[in-house]
Amino acid sequence: MIQAKDLQPQELSALLHFYADSGVEWLLEDAPIDRVAEFAAQKVAREQSRASQPAPQQRADRQQPARAAAAAQPLNPPPVAMPNVDAVAAAQRAAEGASSLAELKAAIERFDSCNLKNGARSTVFASGDPAARIMVIGPMPNADDDRDGLPFSGRTGQLLDRMLAAIGLSREAVLLTNIIPWRPPGNRMPSPAETAICKPFIERQIALAEPDHVLLLGNFPARFFFGETGTIHNLRGEWREVTVGGRSVRAFATLHPQDLLGAPATKALAWRDLLMFSQAITRG
Q: Given 25, 136, 177, 244, which residue has the most CB atoms within 10 angstroms?
């Protein structure tokens, strides 16, 4: 087995990034533990426990009073989760009650009716310039976003910064956000119920920011706003009018920075899309 001390710095860095992307948060115990000795002690304890147990009939006789006492105790059922339809209605009320992006952020941070929040470290809200009239929307936070509490952190954020800089923009000159404000466990795709619960929040963000142009990054945002099931390769590269909260918005889909990291050959497609996006926002 290769040990960490035998790795080169760049290899160790790549390994740590892999662990972070996989959702690993702790690598070490507070004190060293001899797992081999621990297992041996557990095995001895199990054997001693079996040797000291009474015969089956004796155990049954002793267990009957305990079972009777347990049956007499009132049951404490676990709390019932809020049905999805109620959670969606609660999200709609929370979103509609916000008259500014700051109020919406506070409302999302208070919202407890989406199970994704229970497993996430941070509520990742929009960042950048709310008055930019340009929104860049991704799918959901990844491990870096969840750790930093900001959208598009880590390697994907660095690549997005370079993508924006290539057409004369920066993250400070646009409004960056995600459809889902909480990282799903293991970076899995959100379920339809989770998406429906989060939908009022992203719609309210768009209504409050009033963008003239929206750049959608990846499969999930393109399908979410276009209402289609194709891949980003089928949905990218053309402007579409989408209706959000009764307001028509011009939206353009391209590949997510993570797609480019996984398949560098697709950078040419993304560059072509960015040029089209840049031409449109230049014309106004």
A: 136
